[in-house]
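Example record

The entry below shows one chain as it appears in the dataset: sequence first, then structure tokens.
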Amino acid sequence: MDLRAEAAPLDDVIPPHSMQIYRKVWLGLPASGLHWKDAAWLAFGISINAPALSELLPAGVFLRTSSLDYPLSDYRSEAAALAMDGWLHDQFDMESSGAAVTYEASQDNLAFTWGGYCPPLLRRPALRRISMDDNAGGEIQIYSVEERSAATVTCAIRCVGGVVRTGRPFRLRLNDGATGEPVFLILDWIKLYGKVTDSLHPPYSASVQLSGDGVSLLVRGLILASSASDDS
């Protein structure tokens, strides 16, 4: 993950389009925009350090982020908080916040800890609520094309809406406004953290295989949408 940011004095003026984290500690998000969960975790990465920042810089500080880049395969939004936490400690002499991540081999899972702070989002209840809706449609965005043949393509994607499920037809949404017959591809499989799964929801990223006549059209940034199961 690559976080690019800079710190500037607040000068008693609230920067436009900024977010207050704590007292005179303000955050500016990238002009290109962020997924809302990335923004939440980015802000959380500041909040766990905000009292120390406020003491170190009592006149205030504006933390302007210009970009947050990451490989979408196996990405989790919590990493944005760790990236911000690491950047802050590179820039300022502060005690550790306690934020860390460890890999639990027995469960093939990443475990995040936040030094006693309560994280902004709870993952497990949301997973259960979403998984109960078997009829939901979803959208994926192509991050990169990994392998391509005449009939199939393997991509790194991010789920940007709804629930994505294997076996569903996905309609390709072309960026250039091209008209003509709609192009559909079938989602063959999803691999999340190296394991095959049959569904995905925001903000998770994964590797997928799609098949169909339109595989040659897939490039970075394109969005594919599936309908609810009753409409497919």
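Notes for this example: Residues 124-133 have pLDDT under 50 and may be disordered. Residues 125 and 185 are 31 Å apart (CA to CA).
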